[in-house]
Design brief:
The complex is a heterotrimer. Chain A is built from 16 helices and four strands. Chain A is elongated, with a radius of gyration of 30 Å. By secondary structure, chain B is mainly α. Chain B has one domain: MetI-like (MetI-like fold, Orthogonal Bundle), CATH 1.10.3720.10. Helices cover about 80% and strands about 0% of the residues of chain B. Chain B contains 15 helices and two strands. Chain B has a two-stranded antiparallel ribbon. At the A-C interface, α2, α12 and α13 of A face β2, β9, β10, α11 and α13 of C.
Chain lengths: ~400, ~325, ~575
């Protein structure tokens, strides 16, 4: 006998206490009661909210799209405002206070002006920030007239010099004195929307082809899979280059924009298709799908009522994770001069100005700000997508 | 094993045909055929092409015939004669222009791949085993940043940094004084000095991606029952992790070649353009911009074939490593 | 048999007031609380309990194999025998001291031999490793010893099989290899954690025989973890019953089975014993003259191999189901029993044409009208058939769409067949929930709010929604704990009588079939080898395979062990 005596003589009555009722049909109202009636999106939201980084990224992504939407209003200047006298002007500092003649502090938001320095060696004029020159700035100032979304005329700008005749370059200026900040803001509209539109096209292609591939299987599946294989095994940049280079130079910017978007998305659908197919394959074998089929559901109902809801959350995550590749693709192609071209402004087009060492050495801000914008957006989408993916299946423990 | 390799090779034939079709499609993409642009280019320079030459070229490339005939003429020339067509921009056969450049592309890609694996593997293992440690968090963050920087921006930044802080001349593979010098230790060192930037640039993205793959796979494997079995045998933690879960997580790691290679070739292409290296990239861009399509098509095809060969090697490697693939 | 050993056999390992805790987000969860027992040389202690009772955690604690966030909070695990006693509970889980014990002084066998062995190393390599590690053998010695071990665990042709991989072995062979590995260094203690749960009954019997024989030969102390009271009765000397992390009852096997003191033990035993005979709820089936409601004739399914140009081994067609014929009478329950791979699940799916049959005929006789040839049905006809013949699934977690509420799940068949809507639909769903013993108020909840048994009830309610005449229950109770299993069977019996249902009851569990069915068909390798009255098949089978199968089923009474005297089937 291998039993500890004190255990053996515990009275049966003591132990009955925590024995549950034998019938298993009782329900305990507990803290889980609200979880019991929570649907998949509620559960996902709970799971997603716990991830701080993903939440912060969501905030940044929304902010970027807000910038894209309100570009005209947010930018101090129009996209083509040129001031040839200010070539490669460095970013100006912003301060909130000025020191008065009596040495006291006075609240006056302002940017510093420039002084011209002549570089004897290179025989060039360059600009330097001169803290003594004060250019007052403010929020909601009047400036150039613009049409918001081409519809509403206004001259109100979120930020700018209080005197419209003054010049401010918060992030510096480029070769012909255009404001980098304003162009960056307008570029956000193009670059972020290309990602979004591209992903929608990719998604449509991926879900359609992946879906029929995974649902029907057979020869159709094999054919689609081979296509996916060919496309995904080809190096993307050379292929993009090959397709983009065929865009005629004479095409209008809008057409070029859509063609570039299409090219970028044409090659992004493969991974989506592969995932959708895999998920459909797995789902098709799930008991609850078989059950629904035996309940008499039609093919359509099976797909849309039972299978698609199971992958929509995964799709959302996949799509979010696919956006960065689109943004990088557009940026790369435009940088190489075969994607979007001026006068269209995107982050990639802006980076064209930072193509060689001399430009970067003279005006590092031409590289820094657009590059930062690309990185921040790509990082945010990646973190957001990761968070969504982790929250995508609230039913695995 | 031999039949396995043969099977894989046969399986790749349709993919290869698909790739060549895509490449040829790109050749055909610019409006008008190349002959028209050639004639107008020659006309621009004040000369004219006699009609006999035009007729000869038309017949040679089957320009007056349907797509599939033209394709067949093109692909059979490549397959049977190594003839990739004519570069009108350079005025010489494409085959004379591509091989040097493809050679260096292959060389740099291989070096990058080695670097990627050498860095990603240990870091991935470390991150998975010490999950949520400070080191893991740092590597994860670095990985994310590495993934977020587009290759060409990375190239630009490193080019600037090396110029500004290391005083190094950038661009090209050699400093001017070694450009035409015979091989020597000094020249080799010079090459290394020039190569580190492109290799780091090319490797960064994929390294970051592979660290994540390895971390995820190994984390999964670490929870598998066979790890408990190994532990219950009395093996030390290091031995058992290396011998079992790492060994098994290596398989998906190797099969990432399927997408690492295309990404790598993409990276090489754009890096070479930014840093102006004598590789395929700049020539491809130039060919595309000037619509020198046979040259461009040759590069696209060869780069695709390169990734396919890489995949074959990874398949073979996988079969060597994993009896489940080898024996079933 | 070991009962004649003196109970004063030396204690090899003693666990004293062991507690294992898991630090979770919401606080500390105590998986094992104040657990204590002794393991004696040459004796077997069975630690028995239902899922989540803490029995596996206890076993793992004995080798310091608990993963974070779990840890041993209190207690001692004293390993005695040769040398100075060690308290395993105080050893560093990564330290050298515990590593010298693992695999050397305590061997362990796990539940899933497939996933517990490395897929990319040969069986031999995994055993050789232990020998070289602990006994410092050289490669040659270790290999010779491994072949010897494989022979001892009755693996045929050990010289060849030593170099094969896990996936080339059958389930039983894998578990034998696992045993060889655990016993390689002649440990003092063997811990077997559900070693036969993943195996078929006949294989289970063989593996249990093997373990017992090895234990006897090596004089080991053994701790066997199981949820199966039958296995306990067959192999245990002593028993400890675990419930919610505590040992609630312990004693010699005979004492526990025949004089249980704790109510939990009694309940466990009664639900096990209940399945040892035909249900009391069962009434004689309707008049024998009745026409069969479902006739199956020469039904077959052949899977053609995929044609491949370069395959080395010519692949042969697999006959999953091969010439099966039977009749299901109205109001009758027909059991289909068989081991894994016997084709019983495929058979159920062929009848419903979820899988298309390749041969034979299925005829369904509706209440009115002419008999229906199921194989000739078009899409709409099949849909009508699926209203009359419904399927209950094995896995209550996979068979309910997690994204739909219980109301939506149960209403789905009514909605798609346009049978009810609005208030009538609501009322019908309430009625169905009531029928399966669930509170209608829960219909707004999602499946994740329910336990396994409750989910299975929801699945049954869905099956009943269309007033079916036949239910095909495919291992409908296999995923449930034993106490819930008999409740579920009673529910089905009650429903059968109330609604006049006929059942095709597919199961690997002889006890369940005997409890529930009127007649039983035994399947093996796609064929029905024997069909007859349930009681006859379970007590006096005729076919040698059925004999072997029935006699391999462990009997939950230590006074009447059955497995040891079982009939062996000569292949």
């Amino acid at each position: 006998m291998s039993l500890e005596p004190d255990k053996a003589f515990m009275s049966a009555a003591d132990l009955t206490a925590d024995l549950p009722p034998e019938e298993e049909t009782q329900f305990v109202a507990s803290a889980g009661a609200s979880a019991a009636v929570a649907g998949q999106w509620t559960l996902m939201l709970w799971k997603f909210r716990r991830q701080k980084v993903a939440m912060a990224s969501l905030f940044i992504v929304l902010l970027l799209y807000l910038v894209a939407i309100l570009a005209e209003f947010l930018a101090p200047y129009g996209v083509d405002m040129t001031r040839p006298q200010y070539t490669y002007a460095p970013p100006q500092g912003i301060s909130l206070f000025v020191t008065g003649a009596d040495g006291g502090w006075q609240f006056l938001p302002h940017a510093s002006g420039y002084k011209i320095v002549v570089d004897q060696e290179a025989m060039r004029r360059t600009f330097e920030v001169d803290p003594d020159k004060i250019i007052p700035i403010g929020l909601f100032v009047t400036g150039e007239t613009y049409k918001l979304w081409g519809l509403f005329e206004s001259n109100l700008h979120f930020i700018g010099p209080t005197n419209p005749a003054d010049t401010v370059y918060f992030l510096g200026s480029d070769r012909i004195g255009r404001d980098v900040l304003s162009r960056l803001i307008y570029g956000t509209r193009i670059s972020m929307s290309i990602g979004l539109v591209g992903v929608v096209i990719s998604l449509a292609l991926g879900v359609f082809l992946g879906g029929i591939s995974g649902y029907y299987g057979g020869a159709l599946d094999t054919a689609i899979q081979r296509l996916v294989e060919v496309v995904s095994a080809m190096p993307t940049i050379p292929l993009w280059m090959g397709l983009a280079a065929a865009i005629p130079l004479a095409w209008p910017p809008a057409l070029v924009y859509f063609t570039v978007t299409a090219i970028v998305s044409l090659l992004g659908w493969t991974s989506l298709a592969r995932e959708v197919r895999g998920r459909f394959f797995a789902l098709r074998e799930e008991d609850f799908v078989t059950a629904a089929r035996l309940d008499g559901s039609s093919e359509m109902r099976l797909i849309f009522r039972h299978m698609l809801p199971s992958i929509t959350s995964h799709l959302l995550a996949m799509v979010t994770l696919a956006v960065p590749a689109m943004i990088i693709a557009e940026t790369s192609l435009s940088f190489l001069g075969i994607g979007l071209k001026p006068p269209v402004v995107s982050w990639g087009v802006l980076l064209q100005d930072a193509q060689n060492l001399r430009a970067i050495a003279n005006a590092p801000w031409l590289l820094f700000w657009p590059a930062l914008a690309v990185m921040v957006s790509v990082l945010s989408f990646n973190f957001l997508g990761d968070g969504l993916r982790d929250a995508a299946d609230p039913y695995d423990n | 094993m031999l039949s396995f390799i043969l099977k894989r090779v046969l399986y790749m034939v349709p993919t290869l045909i698909g790739m060549s079709l895509v490449s040829f499609f790109i050749i055909q993409l610019p409006p008008g055929d190349f002959l028209t642009s050639l004639i107008s280019a020659i006309a621009d320079s004040g000369q004219s092409l006699d009609s006999a030459t035009v007729a000869a070229l038309t017949a040679q490339y089957g320009l007056d015939q349907p797509f599939y005939v033209q394709y067949w003429k093109w692909i059979s020339g490549i397959l049977f004669r190594g003839d990739f067509g004519w570069s009108f921009d350079w005025g010489q056969p494409v085959s004379k222009l591509i091989w040097d450049r493809m050679g260096i592309t292959l060389f740099v890609s291989t070096l990058s791949l080695i670097l990627i694996w050498a860095v990603a593997l240990p870091i991935g293992i470390y991150s998975a085993v010490k999950r949520y440690s400070i080191g893991d968090h740092i590597f994860t963050l670095l990985g994310f940043i590495g993934l977020a920087i587009p290759t060409f921006i990375m190239a630009l930044v490193l080019m600037y940094v090396s110029y500004k802080f290391l005083g190094q001349s950038v661009g090209g593979l050699f400093s001017p004084e070694y450009q035409d010098a015979p091989w020597s230790w000094a020249k080799l060192w010079d090459l290394c000095l020039h190569l580190w930037i492109p290799i780091v640039v090319i490797a960064t993205n994929s390294t970051a991606a592979l660290i994540r793959v390895m971390r995820a796979n190994l984390s999964d494997e670490l929870n598998k029952p066979y790890v408990v079995t190994a532990r219950a045998k009395g093996l030390s933690e290091f031995t058992l992790i290396m011998r079992y879960p790492v060994r098994i997580a290596l398989n998906p790691f190797i099969s990432t070649i399927g997408w690492v290679l295309p990404a790598l070739i993409s990276g090489v292409t754009i890096t070479a353009i930014v840093l102006n290296l004598p590789m395929a990239g700049p020539l491809l861009l130039r060919a595309l911009v000037s619509q020198d399509m046979y040259l461009a098509g040759a590069f696209i095809l060869l780069m695709s074939v390169l990734t396919l060969v890489g995949m074959l090697i990874s398949d073979i490697l996988l079969a060597v490593l994993d009896p489940r693939i080898r024996l079933q | 048999m070991t009962t004649d050993l003196p109970t004063t056999a030396p204690t090899v390992l003693e666990v004293r007031s062991l507690s294992v805790e898991f630090a979770l987000r919401g606080g500390t969860f105590t998986a094992a609380r104040d657990v204590g027992f002794k393991l004696q040389a040459g004796r077997t202690l069975c630690l028995v309990g239902e899922s989540g009772s803490g029995k596996s955690v206890t076993a793992r604690a004995m080798m310091q194999l608990i993963d974070a966030p779990g840890r041993i909070a209190r207690g001692n695990i004293m390993l005695g025998g040769a040398g100075a006693p060690v308290d395993i509970a105080t050893l560093n889980p990564r330290g050298e001291a515990i590593r010298a014990i693992r695999g050397r002084r305590i061997g362990m066998i796990f539940q899933e031999p497939m996933s517990s062995l490395s897929p990319v190393h040969t069986i031999g390599a995994q055993i050789v490793e232990v020998l070289r590690l602990h006994l410092k053998m050289d490669a040659k010695q270790a290999r010779a010893r491994t072949i010897e071990l494989l022979r001892q665990v009755e693996i045929p042709d050990p010289e060849r099989n030593i170099d094969r991989y896990t996936f080339e072995f059958s389930g039983g062979m894998r578990q034998r290899a696992m045993i060889a590995m655990a016993l390689a260094c002649n440990p003092q203690v063997l811990i077997a954690d559900e070693p036969t749960t993943a195996l078929d009954v006949t294989t289970q019997a063989e593996v249990l025989d093997l373990i017992s024989r090895m234990q006897r030969e090596l004089g080991m102390a053994m701790l066997l973890i199981t949820h199966d009271m039958g296995v306990v009765a067959e192999v245990a000397d002593d028993v400890a019953v675990m419930y919610r992390g505590k040992i609630v009852e312990a004693g010699p096997v005979d004492e526990v089975f025949h004089n249980a003191r704790h109510p939990y033990t009694r309940r466990l035993l009664s639900s096990v014993l209940k399945l040892e005979r035909t249900s009391e709820l069962k009434q004689a089936p309707a008049a024998a003259a009745a026409e069969p409601i479902l006739s199956v004739r020469d039904l077959g399914k052949v899977y053609q191999p995929r044609k491949s140009l370069l395959s080395r081994t010519p692949k042969v067609a697999v006959k999953a189901v091969d010439g099966v014929s039977f009749d299901l009478m109205a109001g009758e329950s027909l059991g289909i029993v068989g081991e894994s791979g016997s084709g019983k699940t495929t058979l159920g799916r062929l009848i419903l044409r979820i899988v298309e049959p390749t041969d034979g005929a299925v005829t369904y006789r509706p209440q009115s009208g002419a008999p229906i040839d199921v194989r000739g049905l078009d899409k709409q006809g099949l849909r009508n058939l699926h209203q009359q013949v419904r399927l209950i699934f094995q896995d209550p977690f996979a068979s309910l769409n997690p994204r739909m509420t219980v109301r939506q799940i149960i209403a789905d068949p009514l909605v798609v067949n346009r049978i009810a809507s609005g208030a009538a639909l609501e009322a019908r769903v309430s009625e169905l929930l009531g029928m399966v013993g669930l509170d209608p108020a829960v219909m707004e909840r999602y499946p994740h709010a329910f336990s396994g048994g409750q989910r299975q009830r929801i699945g049954i309610a869905r099956a009943l929604a269309l007033n079916p005449r036949i239910l095909i229950a495919d291992e409908a109770t296999s995923a449930l704990d034993v106490s819930i299993r008999s409740q579920m069977l009673d529910l089905l019996l009650e429903l059968q009588q109330r609604l006049g249902l006929s059942f095709l009851f597919i199961s690997h569990d002889i006890g369940v079939v005997r409890y529930f069915c009127d007649r039983v068909a035994v399947m093996r390798r796609g064929k029905i080898v024997e069909i007859g009255a349930a009681e006859t098949i379970c007590t006096a089978p005729e076919h040698p395979y059925t004999k072997a199968l029935i006699s391999a089923v462990p009997h939950p009474d230590p006074r009447h062990k059955r497995m040891r005297t079982r009939t062996h089937l000569d292949a």
